[in-house]
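Question (not urgent): is this output format expected?
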Amino acid sequence: MRVATKVATGSGLLAAVLIGVLGYFVLLVRQLVVANQELTAVHFRVTTVALDLLHQVDQIEVNARKFYVTRDAAYADRVARARDDFAA
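Got this back:
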């Protein structure tokens, strides 16, 4: 076997290995993209729930303050209802 043939064969094998590694990394990146999209969807849902809970806590606090100042039974009912909704 001549030197030129050995160099050409080695270069061809190296190119084939590099193409295989490139294909593997492309598949890996696609899997990471799918995982990232799923995590983003979960994060969005969690953020929405957290904001809703914060809003409910704020409503409980507002109604509790109004009840504390006015001693109106309607505000006490609102606080109790909001507390039960928050616990559910």
